[in-house]
Structure formats: C-alpha cells, structure tokens
Amino acid sequence: MRSRPDPAAGDPNARYHHGNLRDALIAATIAIIEERGVEHVSIREAAKRAGVSPGAPFRHFPTKAALMTAVAEQAMARLSGMVAAAVAAAPDDPMARFSALGHAYLDWALGNPTHFQIISSRTLIDFPASGALREQNDAIRVLMEDLLAEAARRGMLSSPAEVPQLVLSARAFGYGLARMAVDGHFPEWNVTGEAPPVAVHRALDLFIGRLIRGA
Amino acid sequence: MRSRPDPAAGDPNARYHHGNLRDALIAATIAIIEERGVEHVSIREAAKRAGVSPGAPFRHFPTKAALMTAVAEQAMARLSGMVAAAVAAAPDDPMARFSALGHAYLDWALGNPTHFQIISSRTLIDFPASGALREQNDAIRVLMEDLLAEAARRGMLSSPAEVPQLVLSARAFGYGLARMAVDGHFPEWNVTGEAPPVAVHRALDLFIGRLIRGA
DNA sequence: ACCATATGTAATCGCCGATTACATTTCGCT
DNA sequence: AGCGAAATGTAATCGGCGATTACATATGGT
Predict the structure, then answer these.
(1) Residue B9's CB: how many other CB atoms inside 10 A?
(2) Residue A87 backbone dihedrals phi, psi, to 5 degrees
(3) Which among A21, A63, A19, A60 is positioned nearest to A42, based on CA atoms?
(4) What is the pLDDT of residues B139-194, one digit of tens each?
(5) How far apart are CA A184 and CA A178, in angstroms?
C-alpha cells in the first residue's frame, strides 16, 4: 500500500518529497475506512501508510474534516457519474429515467457502502464548505425535478403541482432505504425472505409506481 | 448542572461518593450533545460536569460506547412512549393508527433532534449489545406490521400479501425524512415555501395515502 | 463491629489533532 | 546556470482523549 520508499529502511530511493501525497492520503484514508470503519480514521495512520511524518498531511489538509471532505468529493464524483450514465442510458422517457436514477443511486450505495457512508455523513465532513459537494448534490436534485416536471408536462403525473413534494419524498425514500441498508437497520431480511438489494429495489419500484405515477 | 458539591471548592458537604453518578453522567452527556454536538462528547468532560475524577465513569460504563448506549436507551424509551400514546389516542382504525404512529415518530424526531441523532447513530452506540434498544425498535416495527395486517384483514389495503414490503418502505420513508431534516439535508425549504415540519408531515400523508392505501 | 463490595481518586499509557520551528526540495525568473 | 521564494517535508511539542491499574474510601449485610 505504501506508495513511497521508506527512508527508515535505508532505502536509497527514499525521497524527501512524496510526489503525490495528497492523493496518497485520500487513498490511505479510504483503505482505513474499508478495513476498520469510518470512525477509526486518523490522520496519523493515513500519514504512516503514505510513509510520511505525522505532521505532513497538514500541508495538504488544514484539518481532518478537510481530508474527509476530499474523500467525500471523490466519492460523490463517482456517484454522480454512475447516476448520469444510468439516466443517459435509459429510454427517452422521463419516468423511465427517473426510475433509472433511483436504481442507480441504490445500486451505488449498496455496492459502495464505504463511500456512501462518507458522503452522507454530516459530522465528519464539512459539507457547506465544499462547493463541489453542494453542486453535485444539487445537480442530482435538479435532475429529479426536471424529470418529474417533464413527466407532468406529458401528463404522466396525477398532479403536476406537487412535483416539489414528490421530489422531496423520493429523496427521503431513497436516502432512507440506502442508509438503513448500509447501517444494518434491516434485521428482517429473513422475514421477507429476500436478499437486501432485491427487497430495496422492489421497494423503489413500488414507490415509483404508486407514489409518483399515482397508480 | 453539577449535582454534587465540589470538593475542590472546599465545600464541607463534599462527599466521596456521588450518590447517583450513573444518571448524572447520562444527563451531563445529553447536555454536552445539546451544547456542542454528538461528536464532541467525551467521558472526561461528562465526569468534570458531574464533579468527579476522569476515571470514575468507568465504574459505571465499561466503555464510551456503553455510556452513549445508555443515553440512547433513555431516548428510545421516550420515543416508544410517545409513539404508543399516539397510537392509543388515535381512533380504533388500523390505518388511522398507522398514520398516527408515523406522525408521532416524525414529531418526536423533529422536536428532539439531539435524542434522535443518538438513537439512529450506529457508530457511537453499541446497538446489538443493548437488548432494550433492540426490543423497543422491534416493538415499533411489529406494531406497524400488526396495524397493516389488520388493515389488510379489513380490506383497506390493495394487496394484503405485500404487507412486509409496505412496512419496509414505510420505515425507510420515515427514517429518511427524519434523518434528512435533522441533518440539514433540506436546503430547498425555500423552494416549497413551507416550513420543514409542515412539508415533512405533508409528505407522510401523501405517502400513506398513495402507497399504503393504494389510492 | 467487621469486612466484602461498591465506588471513588491518582497516576499512567498510547493515540489523537493540531501547531510551531526548522530542513529540504522544487520551480520560476533572470 | 544559478538564485531565491514557495512548496513540502521533519521533529518536537501541546492539550485532550479513552482506557487501565493500583490504591483509598464509603456502604451495607451479617
């Protein structure tokens, strides 16, 4: 994992400057999260894994929250990419695209619980301070609004006036579903008899079918 | 807040034993959370506020997670009480009671964000280790299942077979709504023009009306 | 009254985030 | 090429933290 020769080992290739410490720290942080959980991340260990002194990270991140925010930004970029791709790949139909967006979101959250945890944390990262984070978050919400507005224009919604309410509901539903799954709030999988991802995606289908389309 | 004479001040009433340190620590912890946020809780400060040495708390809580779990248990008891009271006060109609349960849950979460944060945290508390926490959590879920099952028996549901799916959806919806509100994920209040609690409760009504009743 | 047990203190350990002073490297400018 | 500023590393240090240990004091049952 160490991306730099270790000076302590007398390595002749040891360099004083790391070369790309910023990215190395982000990668190390992600590794720590996957190994020991979000709450066990420490700047010092990330520095150790990057083969660097404990104070070095502060040249790139003024605070621990800044490091976590950088990790979140990278994760958010991936999520945005997945969602955008799924929407683009879906048929040219607002409701089909809306559904594709939701399933892509759940797929990503369930498939990358580590990254999802970071994104949705509001205690470890400094969300308001990150323009990138807010922009990509808003972009997804705006995309949802646009899709539902277009659906309303085509008469696919029972009531066009309630688009904002529907978007709010849809976000809460997807967010709640993803978070509960990731955080292990679903001990009743054995009751439904379905694997978590299957039940979650089924729930989304039900939601879109009934709530949004007003069936 | 200090519930015990301060020995350092030469208080003649100072006692070696606190008398009720366990409860005092829980109260101090809640106060810290309300003042500085969940992530700034420390056993040492709770001990200081209780007028006790930094090691004393460990006589009552083997670990920090145990202390936070005790706080969560107390909060969960209040939530369970509110929910049970709301259900009991509602008309003798399964859907009316189901709706009352949901609104009581949201009311409590939005009215006591501090306690809700603790309950829903899975990193600070040791959820699986607390029988009380799991029991009360399960009790609410079972109550939801029973209410919907009764509603199905009375023909108030479009499809009785999907009760487990509906309960899963309803839990995710309420949880997502509450968490997003508490964590500040709703910057679009100005878009809807409604105050957060109003919009949240409206969303729940919409959800129950369309998704559950199948309208 | 006695003593086991409960409950407190004191001292200590290792780890943490953060800051400061200093060392080294890199890079733009002439 | 070389020089100096800026970037980027190290070393040492600070205060705070969770947790453990050895020891001191209070409480309550017999």
Answers:
(1) 9
(2) -65, -40
(3) A63
(4) 999 999 999 999 999 999 877 778 999 999 999 999 999 999 988 887 655 555 67
(5) 10
> Domains of chain A by range and CATH?
7-59 (1.10.10), 64-212 (1.10.357.10)
Go through chain B and tell me how many residues it has. 215
B168 and A38 within 8 Å at the Cβ level: the answer is no
Question: Which of B211, B212, B213 would best serve as a mutation to test chain A binding (most A beta carbons within 10 A)?
Answer: B211
Residues 13-52 of chain B in contact with strand C via CB under 7 angstroms: 16-19, 21, 47, 51-52
What would the two tokens of residue B139 be? 């009790």
Digit-coded pLDDT (tens) for B77-87? 999 999 999 99
Residue pairs between chains A and B whose CB atoms are closer than 8 Å: 100
Q: Which amino acid is at B141?
A: R
Task: With beta carbons less than 8 A apart as the criterion, state whether A28 and A46 touch.
Answer: yes
What are the DSSP E strand ranges found in chain A?
none
- Give the distance from CA A194 to its chain's centroid: 24
Please name the amino acid found at residue B86: A
Protein footprint of strand D, defined by Cβ closer than 7 Å to any strand atom: A 7, 16-19, 21, 47, 51-56, 59-60; B 15-17, 41-45, 54-55, 58, 62-65
A177 Cβ contact partners less than 8 Å away, ≥ 6 residues apart: A106, A200, A203, A204, B172, B176
What is the crossing angle of helices A113-120 and A21-36, to 10°?
110
> What is the rounded CA–CA span in Å between residue B210 and residue B204?
10
Counted residue by residue, chain A has a size of 215
Phi/psi at B153 (nearest 5 deg)? -60, -35
**Tokens 């289908």 belong to residue:** A205
